[in-house]
Structure prediction request, 227 residues.
Amino acid sequence: MGVSFTWIGHGTFVFHFDGHETLVDPFITDNPATDVDPDDLNPELIFVTHAHSDHVADLESVAARSGATVVANVEIATWAGGKGLNAHPLNSGGGRDFGFVHARQTIAFHSSSFPDGSYGGNPNGFVFTTTGGERLYLAGDTALFSDMQLIGAGGLDVAFLPIGDNFTMGPDDAVTALQLLKPRLAVPMHYNTFDLVAVDVDAWAGRVRAETDAEPLVLQPGESHSL
Prediction:
């Protein structure tokens, strides 16, 4: 069945790994970029990169209804367990085989706090390795960092990168990130949701084609792609 992914908008994605639904950073109900009903999502796993409200706003409701396991850093997993949710903790550099996908947590340079201001642990990204051997890097919210070249060293099929600037790396640094990561496909995220993260994504895609070996894949909210 392979791999497919749908951009919900902002940093939120739905992945299907061999038919198993997986959700990343559920920010749906108050996300102005999407009209998806969170009740239509039935993930088995929910991966969370950090605790900011624009990444966890629908986490509790979707996880409680679906019974999904929340996979996140220790602090977020502990918080989720305290809410009665299924949770599996990871930490930077650690990985876990969930049967239909292996997930390894990477570093990210950002901040992380829950909507009430309490500490949300270190921010992270994820490298997903499928049963078919595809490798997908979802950077989460992050600045550019030189160790991205190590993340890409094993070969990447897709890199999902924030490009919105202001809170994360912007278009310039995202191009540099692709030069380090060297993925086959580059998917932009965390942009044009709000005025503060508004960028010209088409101009960025042109730079990706001209300055890197990656092919840009610009999805519209709700649009899917299969590998």
User: Anything to note?
Assistant: The CA atoms of residues 101 and 130 lie 5 Å apart.
